[in-house]
């Protein structure tokens, strides 16, 4: 097949051909025919896309909250499964769902059944209906942030290396994976010191990507699959459609833990990943400043809505440590603690702002590898141990 000029010529393109992007979703009203002869569970679900989760611009279907929708003899029955501590949410949603479905021609009665469970704090099983994590991966943990530039990828890379060190000491080498889903800036390969393309074994739907390995961490990244000049417009649909293959078609082997570096923000890509993978939880990375914590809080709430527990907050750039050992709170203080309280989780640790962290990332030699007994590395190792303890209790 001839490949057009600015299309990627890498294995990702091959993936893309097998799994073309999902067509743009039609608006609910335009696809639902409000005519009783065409009412089906699917058309009811389509209609429910008009119902927004209270306080969010996102609808209850895309949040994965509609468990069943049935239609029998003029009665539309809907079952919602919510995770919330706010009693107003189920009441509001019951009202909104009833109103939304009653306005469909042919619907005489609406029955709304709602089950609620308290919003998770730490621990608690992830319960996304579409979870598909392979069993060989014991735990999958997302690394997320509200804002870009807070050091999420830097944190993910150093935490992965620290986990590899701690697990190797405990007799489990080669049991850490790092999946870089940050499509707009897949910086993990640069930060961990990998280049080139991963090998592919097999063909067609059974093709398997072999993760590349560095500093004891198995790595798969969009950055290893797409050329640097691939237009961003290709990247969005690629990740949306291939994220499931990304995990299923990577030969991770047996892993104790897979970290997933999510794109920053709370958009469709994050939601799609949270709902596709059986995440054991998420870590939210923030700087101490309010501008970052406010957006990070939204990210945290998104995970809670899709039943993914927040395992903790990691505060990055907490203070600048000058050569004399004095701390300077350049981005303010207390943001991580406040965010942890707001999201009813714990503050996992505080990472200092250090020139060595930046230079380590730029040279593919993370600080945890270059200086494993320094202040920042100790903090990463402590976070790694806390995380493993939390996961072991599940
Ligand atoms: P994000 O993934 O949130 O967009 P990055 O991990 O790419 O952020 O980090 C943004 C920039 O900040 C990078 O240049 C990185 O090297 C630098 N950086 C991140 N954390 C630290 C830190 N603790 N100390 C010094 N520089 C840091």
- N-C termini distance: 49 Å
Number of domains: 2
Structural class, judged by helices and strands?
A: alpha/beta
* Low-confidence sequence ranges: 1-34, 120-134
Estimate what percentage of residues fall within beta strands. Answer: 15-25%
Main sheet makeup = 9 strands, mixed
Architecture (CATH level 2) name of the largest domain:
3-Layer(aba) Sandwich
Q: Which CATH C-level class of the largest domain is it?
A: Alpha Beta
**In percent, how helical is the residue content?**
25-40%
Q: Helical region count? A: 14
Number of strands: 14
Bound molecule types: adenosine-5'-diphosphate
SSE order and pairing:
Blueprint (H helix, E strand, L loop, with lengths): L10 H8 L9 H4 L9 H8 L17 E7 L2 E9 L4 H15 L6 E9 L19 E8 L7 H18 L6 E5 L7 H5 L7 E2 L6 E2 L2 E3 L2 E5 H4 L6 H17 L6 E7 L6 H9 L4 E6 L3 H16 L4 E12 L5 E2 L6 H8 L4 E7 L1 H8 L4 H4 L4 H18 L2
Parallel strand pairs: 2-3, 4-10, 4-11, 5-9, 5-10, 11-12, 12-14
Antiparallel strand pairs: 1-2, 6-7, 8-9, 12-13
Helix pairs in contact: 5-14, 8-9, 10-11
The site of adenosine-5'-diphosphate (ADP) has 18 residues, from helix 5, strand 12, strand 14 and helix 12.
Quick tags:
binds adenosine-5'-diphosphate, single chain, 36% helix, 9-stranded mixed β-sheet, 2 domains, disordered N terminus, 14 helices, 3-stranded mixed β-sheet, alpha/beta, 394 residues, GMP Synthetase, Chain A, domain 3, Rossmann fold, 21% strand
């Amino acid at each position: 097949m001839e490949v057009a000029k600015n299309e990627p010529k890498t294995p990702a393109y091959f993936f893309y051909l097998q799994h073309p992007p999902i067509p743009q979703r039609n608006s609910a009203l335009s696809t639902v025919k409000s005519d009783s002869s065409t009412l089906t569970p699917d058309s009811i679900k389509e209609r429910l896309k008009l119902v927004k989760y209270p306080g969010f611009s996102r609808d209850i279907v895309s949040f994965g909250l509609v468990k069943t929708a049935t239609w029998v003899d003029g009665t539309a029955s809907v079952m919602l499964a919510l995770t919330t501590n706010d009693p107003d949410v189920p009441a509001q949603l019951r009202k909104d769902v009833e109103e939304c479905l009653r306005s469909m021609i042919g619907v005489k009665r609406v029955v709304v059944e709602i089950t609620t469970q308290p919003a998770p704090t730490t621990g608690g099983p992830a319960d996304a209906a579409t979870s598909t994590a392979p069993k060989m991966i014991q735990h999958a943990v997302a690394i997320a942030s509200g804002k870009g530039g807070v050091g999420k990828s830097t944190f993910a890379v150093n935490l992965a290396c620290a986990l590899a060190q701690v697990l190797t000491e405990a007799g489990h080498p080669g049991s850490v994976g790092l999946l870089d889903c940050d499509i707009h800036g897949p910086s993990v390969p640069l930060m961990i010191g990998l280049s080139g393309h991963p090998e592919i074994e097999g063909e067609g739907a059974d093709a398997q990507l072999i993760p590349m390995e560095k500093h004891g961490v198995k790595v798969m990244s969009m950055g290893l699959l797409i050329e640097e000049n691939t237009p961003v417009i290709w990247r969005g649909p690629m990740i949306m459609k291939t994220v499931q293959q990304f995990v299923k078609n990577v030969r991770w082997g047996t892993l104790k833990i897979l970290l997933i570096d999510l794109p920053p923000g709370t958009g469709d890509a994050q939601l799609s990943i949270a709902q596709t993978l059986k995440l054991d939880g998420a870590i939210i990375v923030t700087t101490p400043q309010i501008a970052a914590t406010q957006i990070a809080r939204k990210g945290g709430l998104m995970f809670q809505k899709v039943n993914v527990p927040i395992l903790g907050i990691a505060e990055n750039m907490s203070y600048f440590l000058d050569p004399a050992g004095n701390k300077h709170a350049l981005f303010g203080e207390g943001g991580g603690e406040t965010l942890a309280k707001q999201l009813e989780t714990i503050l996992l640790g505080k990472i200092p702002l250090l020139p060595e962290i930046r230079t380590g990332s730029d040279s593919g030699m993370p600080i945890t590898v270059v200086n494993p007994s320094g202040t920042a590395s100790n903090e990463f190792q402590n976070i790694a141990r806390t995380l493993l303890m939390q996961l072991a209790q599940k």
